[in-house]
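Folding Task

Wanted — backbone structure
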Amino acid sequence: MKILIVFAHPEPRSLNTSLRDVAVDELRLGGHEECVSDLYAEQWKSQIDREDFPALAGDERLKVATVSGKAFAANVLTEDVRAEHEKLMWADAVIFQFPLWWFAMPAIMKGWVDRVYAHGFAYGVGEHSDTRWGDRYGEGVFAGKRAMLVVTAGGWASHYAPRGINGPIDDLLFPINHGILHYPGFSVLPPFVAYRVDRLDDAGFAVVSAALRERMRTLFLRAPIPYRRQNDGDYLIPSMELKPGLGEPMTSGFGLHLCDDTSSPEAGDPVCPEK
């Protein structure tokens, strides 16, 4: 299989770089092909602006979604963006690896998303009607592909636990997993998170490396996060609210967008099984 790694860390001698090399080594041992977009090494342009749209007239207002869609349709997006599109379409799975800085991905990776996820490519696609609201949240250009986050954090795992002061890690990563990955169609795997990385010694690195190798070996075997699919009947259109009666009675917020729990023998099939 073919795997793209979108990587963001400014230091070539960092723990993140070492973990990336571990992942690449394990993927190669498994017979996979890999490609790395090293954003800092490539000096990726992180802001989206008029330079991204050379065909835009000087006196024309920059409306990013509109101009992005026209540029994508005319195949006149900048060369670096078109190269990333080719990599994404080539890949069977995409790994996004980054340190958690101020509860988010580094700005350079967010800039990669802003520029690469062009209108007509990653969003603004599909039929919009009374029964469908575009190809998104489980459908779209990346349907059939897998995606996973590899994240390092300085805090303890307990800081990111359900009662931890930083908030649950799944909630912190929800805008990425559900918004950036599930929205354009990826099947999103549970994230790999390494904690207390600033204090990691050789023994700790060995443990984290072994766990990461296991995740690489099971990249195409592990079940994705069971997010609901937008057009499978769980949401009202066009309000896009979850229909009454769906979701566990005490569940709110992000948890509503996971398929209903079917752990009990009487529960039957999931409300929104993976397709």
Observations:
- The chain has two domains: 2-224, 226-275.
- The chain has a mean pLDDT of 91.
